[in-house]
Amino acid sequence: METQNFIVMLTFACCTMAHAVATAVVAIYARYKVQYLSLAWIMGLFTMILLIITPFSASVANGHPGLLHPGMLLMFVVGSYMQSIYTFGITMPGFLQWGRMWGYASPIIILGVVSLVAFYPFGSLTKVYSFSELADNILSPDLIMRIIALGMGVYYVINIFRLPHRMAYKTIIPTYLVGYCTLLGLSSVLYIYVCFNYSAQGLCWYVGVFSALNMYLVFQTLDNMARTLPLPHIDDDSYMLDEDTDENAQNDAETRREEDFNERNLRCYHRIQHWMQNHRAAWCDYTFNRDRLCEETGINRQLMLQCLRSQGYNNVHEYLTLYRVEELKNLVKSGRLRVATECDMAGFATVKTARLCFERTYGVKLDDYISEKTKVRN
């Protein structure tokens, strides 16, 4: 028995430490990219939960909670909720706002309040240790609430797959993310099995698998960031100098670089223009941003900003927005865009942004322009 207690405590302690390290790493990434902010929060919450549970490892090892224990179901519902927004935060980070997340969590809040109000005064819950006892007490109010909680947890698990396809259907979801979601769903099946047939070993297996999946996601994040690191700053017209080149030759090369500064900016701008004109589908995806443009054109962020400013643009965002506004106008003129809510066809994430940018650029409201072109066609 002591060996089992030690194994449970060691499992929980190791998983807590792993999540703590993951939280620290992802939090650093979240400072620079909002798409990692939800993951940092979720990793931190799991760290806190595991930290609270670890001191009670002996109770976990020796406990006999029976079927569908409320505490295990609570962890299942809350955990499934947080897991279901993993992929959503990566594929469409702009949707993760406090108001929407509270709305998404409202079923859990309502269930918790109803359960607390309904059962707290009684101080006891129906405990079942076999399926026959479960069938006999299936109509008891607290078991009905537990079954509802189980269904709610399954609903959030399904959303792990459903949300990215439903809300970000035009975004290409990476293969590693699809595999991660699949394994995450299978691990939830293991947890449901433990809820019905509790064992300390089964719970340890689930916590271990769950932690391994989270670590995989964190390391994959590190790998993705490493792949998108800015390229070294190398001027197109730089000169390779031999080891025996004297100081005068180096000064001449430096002088030539200064003289060709404007020409270099113009060449970079033409490279960007050529890419934008031949890759419409890429920048019409509303997730396309400055980092993607730098990666696709092979120009680092400093040089990108420098060459765009030399042509009168304030920043990369303004440059992309003007392209998207022009695309929006062309779509309206051709009749392919008939209502403002279809603005995502031009790369805008929200209708509000599209209307604001269109009016700033052309001095005409987008809805009025659409109405005018519709009347002309009719």
Beta-strand content: under 5%
Could you tell me the mean pLDDT? 79
Largest sheet: none
For the CA atoms, what is the radius of gyration?
Answer: 28 Å
Please give the count of helices.
19
Structural class: mainly alpha
What is the H/E order? Answer: HHHHHHHHHHHHHHHHHHH
Overall geometry comes to elongated
Residue runs with pLDDT of under 50 for 5 or more positions:
232-245
Give the oligomer, counting copies of the same chain as homo and different chains as hetero: single chain
Distance between the termini: 82 Å
Number of strands: 0
Residues in helices, as a percent range = over 70%
Written overview of the protein:
The chain is mostly helical. 72% of the residues lie in helices and 0% in strands. The protein is built from 19 helices and no strands. The chain has helices spanning 2-30, 37-53, 57-62, 70-84, 86-91, 98-104, 106-119, 131-136, 141-167, 175-196, 200-227, 247-259, 261-278, 280-283, 290-297, 301-310, 316-334, 351-362, 366-377. Mean pLDDT is 79; it is low at 232-245.
